[in-house]
Amino acid sequence: MITKKIKIGKKYISIISLKLGSKNLIVLSGSRGYVMCGYLNLNVAEKFNDLAIKITGVSSIQEALKAKVVGLTSAARKNGIFKGQVIKDVLKIIV
């Protein structure tokens, strides 16, 4: 398991990468919401009213930071996040 923190402005995003089988589960978590890889369920995040963003096709933290939004909850939409948005911009919202 890899854990990191990256600074966004004056706050930090926590990053977890956990090897599961042949792939990595990756989560980037801020105080307001999180970015999750395809391993996690967006419908469950919606049910809990989480500000959640889904990315796919990533195997590393570096790829996750360069990814684009492929799915999101209504709470994420209400906070100005949209499909196709670059994750680096999303991190400024969820921090």
- In whole angstroms, the N-to-C terminal distance is 22 Å
Query: Helix/strand-derived class?
Result: alpha+beta
Average pLDDT metric: 96
Give the total of domains. 1
CATH class: Alpha Beta
Give a quick rundown of the structure.
The chain is 26% helix and 34% strand. The protein is of the alpha+beta class and 95 residues long.
What does this structure look like?
There is one protein chain. The chain contains 4 helices and 6 strands; from the N terminus they run ββββαβαβαα. With 95 residues, it is an alpha+beta fold. It has a single domain, classed as Hypothetical protein Ta1206 fold, CATH 3.30.1980.10. Strands 1-2-3-4-5-6 form a 6-stranded mixed β-sheet. α1 (42-47) links the parallel β4 and β5 (52-54). It starts with a strand and ends with a helix. The model has no long low-confidence stretch (mean pLDDT 96).
Indicate the topology:
Layout: E1 2-8, E2 11-20, E3 23-29, E4 34-36, H1 42-47, E5 52-54, H2 61-66, E6 71-72, H3 74-78, H4 87-94
Parallel strand pairs: 4-5
Antiparallel strand pairs: 1-2, 2-3, 3-4, 5-6
